[in-house]
Design a protein that fits this description.
This protein is α/β, with parallel strands linked by helices. The chain is built from 15 helices and nine strands. Helix 3 packs parallel to helix 4, helix 4 packs across helix 7 and helix 9 runs parallel beside helix 10. The chain is globular, with a radius of gyration of 20 Å.
């Protein structure tokens, strides 16, 4: 199996491209993080059973309604409850961590679930500036973003265990990792987690293209930049040992319900959560009832309408049509769906409906 084989997904049913899942481990009002993590296990099992290609967890911090601050820990938990589906980070925010630590964590995950781990990397903090400063123990945050290509190169060296002679890290090894194969009697897995670059603008798109890496774009919160970034990625692409042609997925906010009215209620609650986050009041995801009773200001109402215009929602047929149109407009090679709602049962139901709408495989 080549590196590209571990990246490219398989299309099932009538879906235009492979479908995958992005999980923010959302916590609703009146629910606990334990409840949210149990939903993640249920979702991962469902995704595996229905033929979704991969399941990624996103790193966020200091947000009460998002319990995904430790992707590697969550992925280890999901690996124990699944057998085939690819698991990965969407993403780990590289400037928040020492590259060696990430190489060790994902080497460990690879040992737990050989051939199933993706390492998606972003350069944003995944939080506000003050929290980023606490994570990085520095207030010089721009340095972390500016140093991203160098940090990426260092991380790749640790994953491949190939620092050149004379390098200060030549005798430092990420374990589990390739060094074990060179030890007396050593046998090492042939797999290495493929690296993806994530982005919401052009920087990572261009870098991913220049390095010949797969690219994931955050359409779900930066829709206006999607097509320009994907065009830049494709224009910048240079074939590599990883890929001989560009491969880009986009993250899409999508929520299907049994009727259109219920879908609108659910996405309104998620939008209220975003209003509070964007105005410095992050909290748990409110209930649809709370959102319906909320007195939105004109500015807030304008934000909600703009936000929800990029959420593909409605009945299963409406969501399928919206996803088909989005894939056709962007040329994305894969759609990674994220369903943000107050209740875990609503999120599970959404993926079930979308799987049914596309005729994805059903469990035996």
């Amino acid at each position: 199996m080549t590196a590209g084989d571990e990246i490219r997904g398989t299309t099932h049913g009538t879906a235009p491209v492979p479908l995958s899942v992005l999980d923010l481990v959302t916590v609703g009002a009146g629910r606990t993080a334990s409840d949210a993590l149990r939903t993640s296990v249920d979702l991962a099992k469902l995704a595996e059973a229905r033929g979704f290609h991969r399941y990624w967890v996103a790193e966020h911090h200091s947000m009460p309604g998002v319990a995904s601050s430790s992707p590697a820990v969550i992925l280890a938990h999901l690996a124990a409850h699944t057998e085939r589906i690819r698991l990965g980070s969407g993403g780990v925010m590289l400037p928040n961590h020492a590259p060696l630590v990430i190489a060790e964590q994902f080497g460990t995950l690879e040992a737990m679930a050989p051939g199933r781990i993706d390492l998606g990397l972003g350069r944003a903090p995944g939080t506000d500036g003050a929290t980023a400063a606490a994570l990085r123990r520095t207030d010089r945050l721009n340095e972390g973003a500016d140093d991203f290509p160098q940090q990426l190169a260092e991380l790749t060296r640790f994953l491949d265990d190939d620092f050149p002679d004379g390098h200060p890290y030549r005798r430092i090894h990420a374990v589990p990792g390739p060094v074990q194969a060179t030890s007396p009697g050593g046998v090492q897995s042939p797999h290495r987690p493929p690296v993806w670059l994530l982005g919401s603008s052009g920087f990572s798109a261009r870098l991913a293209g220049m390095l010949g890496l797969p690219f994931a774009f955050a359409h779900h919160f930066s829709a206006q930049n999607t097509i320009p970034a994907l065009d830049l990625y494709r224009e910048s692409f240079r074939p590599s040992e990883v890929l001989d042609a560009p491969y880009a997925l986009i993250g899409v906010a999508a929520l299907a319900a049994d009727d259109e009215k219920e879908a609108r209620r659910q996405v309104l609650a998620a939008a209220l959560n975003m209003v509070r986050l964007r105005t410095g009041r992050p909290g748990l995801v409110p209930t649809p009832e709370e959102a319906e009773a909320y007195d939105f200001s004109p500015m807030e109402r304008e934000f909600v309408e703009s936000w929800n215009a990029n959420v593909v929602h409605g009945t299963a047929d409406e969501v399928r049509a919206g996803l088909d149109d989005l894939q056709k407009r962007t040329g994305a090679d894969e759609l990674m769906l994220t369903a943000n709602a107050h209740g875990g049962d609503v999120r599970v139901r959404s993926y079930e409906l979308i799987a049914d709408a596309y005729g994805l495989p059903t469990p035996a």
